[in-house]
Amino acid sequence: MPVETIFALCISACALVFTALSFRRTQNHDNSDIATQRATITADIRYIRDSIDEIKLENKSIQKDLSELKTKVVEIDASAKSAHKRLDDLNRKGTND
Question: How much is the pTM?
Answer without folding.
Answer: 0.53
